[in-house]
Amino acid sequence: MKRLSDVKRIGYGAMRLSGPGIMGPPADPDEARRVLQRAIELGVDHIDTSDYYGPYVVNDLIRESLHPYPPELVLVTKVGARRTDDGAWLPAFAPDEIKEAVHDNLGRLGVERLGGVNLRFMDGVEGGFEEQWTVLADLQSQGLVCELGLSNCTPEQVKIAQDIAPVAMVQNAYNVAHREDDDFIDELDSHGIWYVPFFPLGGFSPLQLSAVSDVAERHGATHMQVALAWLLQRSRNILLIPGTSSVAHLEENLAASRLKLDEDDLEVLDAIG
Question: Among the options 53, 56, 174, 195, which is catalytic?
Answer without folding.
Answer: 53
